[in-house]
Amino acid sequence: MYRYHTTVTIQQRDLGLRLHSLNSWLPSRAVLDAVTEQKFCAQLAERTRRATTRAMALALVVLLVFVLMDVINGGQWFSCSNLLRYASMLCVIILLWIGNHQNVRFWYRNIYLGSLWMMGMVTALFVEIGLSGGKLYEGGPMVAVMMTAAIPALHLGHKLVIWTILALGLVLLNQISNVDTEWTLFYFAMTVLIMAFMQYQIDRLTRLQFRSNLLEKAKAETDQLTGVLNRHAFTRMTDKILHELHHDEGLALAIIDLDYFKRYNDYFGHLQGDLALVSVGQRLASLPAELVVRFGGEEFILVVRFTRVMPDWLATLHQTLRFEHHPHATSPFGHLTCSVGIAVLMTDRAHAQKITPKYLLEAADKALYQVKESGRNNTRILTI
Predict the structure, then answer these.
(1) 323-339 CB burial, b ≥16 within 10 A, e <16
(2) Number of Cβ within a 10 Å radius of residue 202
(3) pLDDT 10s digits, 78-136
(4) Which helix (H) or strand (E) holds 85?
């Protein structure tokens, strides 16, 4: 179950972001924590899916060109070298098919495995070329490095593993044959160094931008006084929760209105009133709710997601929100209290997706009106 509400200030919000983690020097580990890295990767996969597909298509064309060049120079269509190229091409075709027919999450999980397979075939190809021809040109491994560098969905850690496979193959070729691969390894190492530096900068800068966007979004959706969510965030997040409800789940939306709060402000002053609002926000944030929202003025909203049975504490929420340490001389109750109207949605998922946040809000507002008409400092529940 998700918890979207915030704590006191934007600086204290747990955004899952740690800029200077000491776990690893890789940007995929050092800039964001594990949870936020997953969110970043999901967004990256969605945004780079088309570009990665184009990179894979380009790799397919390059492999096909090498097959044609080999045949033109007297090679056989089904020579050992070309069979390895075909295996690499098959891998690319499978990845292209996955990219066009499967969901993004499935595709992203397999793009790395497919790249490992492809590099394994390419490495075997270079070893076979060296053993059969007695020579390996420097350009081949360099092209392989640049082709994998062009896959935007893979971060530096992925690519270093892929390039290590190729490096081990070149070292193996040097050990088991008379092929001189020293210059090949030198140019390969220089290419890897340049590509790795570029990828490091890209990985770091894109994650820093993602972090900045999250902070800006959180700031825009946070009430600066109480630290809970603001009205701007309410509709988007409530609508998202409604669409995520399972068939055995329900949703409760509670409107909390502080009783006689205008009198409180007039009597104690707005500074004391702000402190009272902060106390209310902190108390609400401690409850097991999906969303805690300051809707405006002295009105707060709780959105509670539950399975089968509504939590008992919701029925007596006004008692939970009594603030004896905030005396209220102009209230008949003697201290700060609240009135609560709750709309409860108990239905199947298909129907829940037709319910809007506005509809829930209007239902809860009707329940709140009934509480105010009956004397305030109570809770009223309306089942939809």
Answers:
(1) beebebeebeeeebbbb
(2) 15
(3) 888 888 888 888 888 887 887 776 677 777 778 888 888 888 888 888 888 888 876 77
(4) helix 80-101
Q: What is the pLDDT of residue 22?
A: 35
Q: How far apart are CA 191 and CA 170, in angstroms?
A: 14
Alpha-carbon distance values, 163 to 45, 166, 232 (Å): 21, 5, 47
Cβ count within 10 A of residue 297: 12
Other beta carbons less than 10 A from residue 269's beta carbon: 11
N-to-C CA span, the chain: 22
Using DSSP, state whether 21 is helix, strand or coil: coil
**List of residues 6+ apart from 358 with CB closer than 8 A:** 235
Coil, strand or helix at 290: coil
Cβ within 8 Å of residue 123, ≥6 positions away: 165, 166, 168, 169
Provide the angle, in degrees to the nearest 10, between the axes of the packed helices 34-72 and 139-149: 140
Residue-range domains of the chain with CATH: 10-218 (no CATH), 229-383 (3.30.70.270)
Residue where the block lists tokens 């390969």:
188
pLDDT value for 11: 40
Which residue is catalytic, options 290, 298, 299, 324? 298
Calculate Rg over the CA atoms of the chain: 30
Q: Is 298 a catalytic residue?
A: yes
Q: Which residues of the chain have pLDDT under 50?
A: 1-23, 350
Structure tokens at 250: 């329900």
Query: What does the pLDDT look like over 204-227, one tens digit per residue?
Result: 999 999 989 888 888 888 998 999
pLDDT value of residue 125:
83
